[in-house]
Amino acid sequence: MQRLGPDGMSSDESDVEDGRGGEDPANPTRPIFRVVAPDWRVREVGEWLEPFDAIHLFSCHNSDDLRSQYPRLQLHTPRTVDRTTRAVKDLPVNAYDPAWLEQQTQADFTVRATNQRYEFQHDNRLFR
């Protein structure tokens, strides 16, 4: 996660700009944000990051600390990509979308994917 850094994370967008008239049926004033993933990042990385978001949401929901904005409800499907983000360099080769990587003319210089592979999976004991 550290190697991905902020530039390797998804962003989100809402159809509701002013925070009114949201899409959450349980709370119509609270919008749901659609996740927008970097186009260079393989889908498995986003799926691997989702439990971290869920744990953060759970910890904020069960905290008495109300200093920050309440976490956003995010919708992860259908997949939306952002084609304007720059790829994070020096990640394992399987962190990059293979079709995107194939289109890069100077990937050895601009992306510098490492030959190592990372297993983007979690130990199920994490969720017990």
Automatic annotation (TrEMBL):
Ranges where the record places region Disordered: 1-31
Protein name: Uncharacterized protein
